[in-house]
Amino acid sequence: MIMIVFIIGCILSFLFLRKKREFEKYNRKKDFLYYFYQNSLDFLVPFVLITFLYLMLSLVVASIVASDSITLHSLIRFEESLEKLKSFFSIFKLNAIEALVVLVALYLLGFFRFMAQKSRKLFKLFDKYQLVVRRVYIVLVLLCSFTFFGTQLGEPTKNVSLRIKTIRDGYADLCNQAREAISEEVAIQIYPKVFGSFPKPYQDALELPTKIEQETNSLRDYYNSVRNEFGVTDRNVEVLFDRGSLRARSASDLKVEVPDGTTKRIDYFAFPNLQQINYKKIKDAKNAVSQYRSNLKSRAIEMLKIEGGKKVTCQIPKVFTGEVKKALLQQIIKDYPILEPVVDVFFKTLDKQVETKVEQAIEDVVNSAIQSPESFDKSVVEQASTIVEHKKVEITKADFKTAQRASIELRNKLARIRNARTNLFHSVAPKDLSIELNSNLSVDISWSSVPDAQSYKIYRSSDRSGSFNKANSETTEGTGIKEWPEEFPTYYRVTAVKGALESKPAKLVKAELLSSQGGTRCQICGSESIGYCHMRDIYVCSSHNIFTSKDGTDWRCP
Q1: Strands 490-498 and 480-483, how do they pair?
Q2: pTM (2 decimals)?
Q3: Mean pLDDT throughout 367-379?
Q4: What mean pLDDT do residues 532-546 have?
Q5: Is 521 helix (H, G, I), strand (E, B) or coil?
Q6: Chain Cα centroid distance, residue 320
Q7: What is the C-alpha separation between 320 and 338, in angstroms, rounded?
Q8: By CB atoms within 10 Å of each CB, which of 10, 178, 318, 413 scores lowest?
């Protein structure tokens, strides 16, 4: 807008000056148009001059505002100068419309000089003071133009003020980001210190959820297997599943994140050195901080490792308050009570003393970011390390008791799971036990496999109700065995073995010879007998008259 006014003013001044010289050339100085051009020039020249000065000022302000290297100190000084200039220009204390009205009135007033020259009787002193009146008129035009454009200085001043505010806000935001960065680094360094302050049994207990969840899931699969295949049910095991506080969840459910907006924003305006602060340095420093925060975005405190490679993690707290623990970790602690002691002490350690030290470290970290953006991460780590080094972790007796109680409860939980599995194994017996008599009077004993069994033991006895002895000195890993009874009938039973555990025995099977029916039937298969074998003391058929003994000797009977 100012540029348009300046251009129009220059064009009109040029046209009026040209017309005025034409009138002077033809000696037409007494014409009204001559006075019109002269009066207009007396008005336009100072007005255009002031317009030009304001336009130059606007360009200077624009270049200063656009410059990233102008220091905050220079901007503040320039802002103060503009305010003084605006105050000086606004000498008549008029607003823009009032100043414009006065300018129009002055322009019109200038035509009274023409009327005064025509009526010399009314203005007898006009000739004598014509030069003075003209000069006063021009001065009035200048002052009113100053006043008018002085009111317009608000926009350049506003731009400078906005630039200063941008730098101030940028600095305040930089301080807040630095505060969050230091807080996060302090938290990430304090947690291991808190963890290491607890007794070894509690530290070991924090590893138990992995085992518990693995063995709980394994027990559930095992129980479903023996229940479906062997018909074994155990109410205690089912109650254990129902009451278990530990549960496998998706990995996303195990991440505790601090929501945006939790951090309290603080306005920082205490600049360390105004002559070293400018928009570019603030921008570069903020970029360095943002890059640092972006690189560490995935950082979190790993509190527990659980089944399937999952983890219980908590985003680094940006604020030091127990409300974070109460609001965000409540469900995690409910599922994993073992975490409560270490989480409690962790948030107690992040107290007002730590927060105060963080606030004190902000200025050094921000200075480092402004002067050397690439060293921001190093400065944050150093400041956080200093704070953590001098911070003592205090674990009260109540905290120790809670940790001890949680550790015992977790170990008991693991023991109950293991005992439940042991009891289930004791309750399972091999099934589908069968026996087959061979021609050499050996027997093939077979059975179905038992879940979790590492091997099987075979027992035999000549008396169904008598004591059973192991049929062989070694256990067998298969589900079948060949055995030579010492006499007939012989009773067999099989148990499953897992380490030192042994299951219930399977249903008895009996190895016996068939009745010969007076020598007419084979005592091995029941077919028609062809004779008596005195070597084995049995009657045999044509299919079993030749057989191999246990020692491999061929026998031919009868």
Answers
A1: unpaired
A2: 0.61
A3: 87
A4: 86
A5: strand
A6: 17
A7: 22
A8: 10
Residue 204: count of CB within 10 angstroms of its CB: 12
Spatial separation of the C-alpha atoms in residues 96 and 145, rounded to whole Å: 10
How far is 431 from 427, CA to CA, in rounded Å?
A: 12
Q: Which of 50-54's residues contact partners 24+ apart within 8 Å by CB, and which partners?
A: 50/142, 50/145, 50/146, 50/149, 51/2, 51/5, 51/6, 51/9, 51/145, 51/149, 52/6, 53/149, 54/2, 54/149, 54/152, 54/153
**pLDDT per residue as tens digits for the range 452-500:** 899 999 999 999 888 898 887 678 889 999 988 888 999 999 999 998 8
Torsion angles phi and psi, residue 437, rounded to 5: -85, 130
DSSP single-letter state for residue 48: H
pLDDT over 70, % of the chain: 71
**Residue 56, C-beta contacts closer than 8 angstroms, at least 6 positions apart:** none
Q: Distance between the two ends of the chain, CA-based, in angstroms?
A: 134
Round to whole Å and give the CA distance between 441 and 522: 12
Task: With H, G, I as helix, E, B as strand and everything else as coil, classify residue 320.
Answer: coil
CA angle 387, 388, 391 (to 5 degrees): 90
Structure tokens at 135: 């000069």
Reported as a pLDDT band with limits 50, 70 and 90, residue 163 is confident
| Rounded (10°) angle between helices 72-89 and 130-152 | 140
pLDDT of 495 reads: 95
Pairing of strands 311-315, 255-256: parallel
Q: What CA–CA distance (Å, rounded) separates 378 from 182?
A: 11
Q: Check residue 502 and give its pLDDT.
A: 92
3-state SS class at 307:
helix
Cα(182)–Cα(531) distance, rounded to whole angstroms?
101
Tokens 């008259």 belong to residue: 545
- Supply the DSSP string of 422-483, one letter for each residue: HHHHHH----S-EEEE-TTS-EEEE----TT--EEEEEEESSTTS--EESSSS-BSSSEEEE
| Residue 230 near residue 431, CB atoms below 8 Å | yes
Cα 219 to chain centroid, rounded = 34
For residue 253, how many other CB atoms are within 10 A of its CB?
14
- Find the helix or strand (DSSP H, E) in which 501 lies: strand 501-502
What distance in Å separates the CA atoms of residue 438 and residue 540, rounded to the nearest whole number?
Answer: 12
Residue 379 in tokens? 């400065």
Does residue 386 carry a pLDDT above 90? yes
